[in-house]
């Protein structure tokens, strides 16, 4: 590997990291504004134009606050837990392609940090590691509410991870590859070649499972503030508390990008061949990816402020008695169809 | 006669839940685009409806003199006992014999019931639309005769809030 290749990788890593963090900031702003709009309020509109600097003000506030470590916590784990949640959340985005290949300095540069040939397995593995952060935060806090929150999250994530995996299996059956690039290229061309039209049931199951995976409403039982004060982050303060929030939003961004990649053709624009259009194609594909991801991020917020939270038994019933059989049924149908046609 | 009320049996369509979820999403989306109800207070001020009972004023007659004859009717009617009047003989010779030497209202005691303006035989005391007159000390919230006459000058011609960028009351 020569110097230039290393440089290119570094630039890509920095770019993706910066873009993710910026989107986290924007999401915090968007969440507050959109929730306010849905409730007929205005939301934060004082800091900067239209309140756009509000997340920065929030960040400064978090940094200036006293960092309280309660007596009786398991200190090393307590300190480690926010990082254990945030780091996998930020790492997941690495395998997601965010544009068609770019040609610079006579090199072909894929717009993706790492082209892992088992990209989907990588994502599933990392999202599962994220659960450790939640559980350990709940455990190390040595307090009842965080513990309940942490236990709930582990149970919830195990149930829905399975369903999500099965929904992805039906996509993998279609594409025949675990590489995200292959899944995208298989969806290219016509509008109807997007997986959402081929696998509507898998899309629905995946979408619901993703909401449970990211601990967003209607599945935010881990932090259910009416029952658990703040859930797993009850005992956290200052920047450690902010890290939990950043992790939640980073997870949302990855989840939205993954939804787009698996079901909406990734960076693909229908009826266009981006790879043959040079620089314009690259810009168009990146814009398409950002727009699609933005829509799903909006959907996250929109859903949060529309639906009430599930009760715990309802959550488990839905996961094991409805979603899992449906996902298996979907795999059965897909596999049967493929066996008959090939 | 007893009536048997059949509970609603959900159809297959209902049990899919997805159509209902989409309906719910559309409701919140409609709210997203709707006009917001927030009034951004220091910049925008709500104009209270007609008949709002806010800060008091003491009216003046055509000659610009105080209408009040210090009869103490308002003070007697006041359930909160917040009006304190010291009467004296009028310095003018236009038939009015009495006038208030001092007229103080303790705004912290006042419950803004409006009984004083009903009791007043001269239509001298009135409640205005002013609602934002908070202050830092108890002393500043006892309004005296000059203060009450000032309020009259501020509110006699136009609505107190019509200068600022205002919203009208939504009814």
Describe the protein.
The complex is a heterodimer of chains A (about 350) and B (about 170). By secondary structure, chain A is mainly α. Chain A has one domain (about 75-340). Chain A has helices at about 5-40, 55-65, 75-90, 120-140, 145-175, 180-185, 195-200, 200-215, 225-230, 240-265, 280-305, 310-340; strands spanning about 100-105, 105-110. In chain A, a hairpin with a 2-residue loop joins strand 1 and strand 2 (about 105-110). Chain A is globular and about 60 Å long. With about 170 residues, chain B is of the alpha+beta class. Chain B has one domain (about 45-170): Alpha-Beta Plaits (2-Layer Sandwich), CATH 3.30.70.3270. Chain B is built from five helices and seven strands. Chain B has helices at about 10-15, 20-35, 75, 115-120, 145-155, and strands spanning about 45, 55-60, 85-90, 100-105, 125, 140-145, 165-170. Chain B has a three-stranded antiparallel beta sheet. A two-stranded parallel sheet of chain B has the order 1-7. The model of chain B has no long low-confidence stretch (mean pLDDT about 85). At the A-B interface, helix 1 of A face helix 2 of B.
